[in-house]
């Protein structure tokens, strides 16, 4: 798989820019040699090409197991760590930058994380057209772009239409876990989630939960901690007709 430069926004937005406001900006980024090699050698076994048609997750992973979807996995640190720690589960990661995808593939191969698959595409389109309804056990968004400027708030991925889409794709009692280091974005997420009636906040205080031990530390988060930044974790469960509330914290 050859891709020495990531596609430009002009190339990538022609078909999809009118469908929804993107929560990311694509920039040309040169692939490192190891990332390119991982894409060339591992994509056929661990990569998933985008097709606007339903995807059988059981067939993709060769087994019927709970599937965790991580959106915007960056360089793949947390995704590979979790896939290695929970071999009984299956993990699908979506990222829009090829260098991160290549780095994740290389790390997954080194860790022998055979329960991991990756995609390089817009997560909204993947969810809408490829992921069957009620097919996911968990959705993770760790440190999504906060778009701090007010005029850019419309680009934040955590908006009502996106939450409704996640609600369709999660199975009953499925988990939505978000972590952010921007308090204003954390408050925005609480507001959005309070409007959607499909989800139940698992915080005993109705807002944030203590940092879950199963969420791996990344270099990004560790650097933030050294600089004195706080992190807010939010965990919600999709309601069903019978609700059994298990709280965290």
Topology:
Blueprint lengths: L8 H4 L20 H14 L10 H5 L5 E5 L5 H9 L4 E6 L2 H14 L4 E5 L2 H7 L6 E7 L17 H10 E11 L2 H13 L3 E3 L17 H8 L5 E7 L11
Parallel strand pairs: 1-2, 1-4, 2-3, 4-5
Antiparallel strand pairs: 5-7, 6-7
Catalytic activity: guanosine(46) in tRNA + S-adenosyl-L-methionine = N(7)-methylguanosine(46) in tRNA + S-adenosyl-L-homocysteine
InterPro entries: SAM-dependent_MTases_sf, tRNA_(Gua-N-7)_MeTrfase_Trmb, tRNA_methyltr_TrmB_bact
Organism: Candidatus Hoaglandella endobia
Would you give an account of this structure?
This is tRNA (guanine-N(7)-)-methyltransferase. It is an enzyme of class 2 (transferase). One of its GO terms (molecular function) is tRNA (guanine(46)-N7)-methyltransferase activity. The structure is a single chain. This protein has 249 residues and is α/β, with parallel strands linked by helices. The protein is 34% helix and 18% strand. Strand 2 (90-95), helix 5 and strand 3 (116-120) form a beta-alpha-beta unit. Helix 2 (33-46) packs across helix 5 and helix 4 (77-85) packs parallel to helix 5. The chain is globular. It starts with 8 loop residues before the first helix and ends in an 11-residue tail after the last strand.
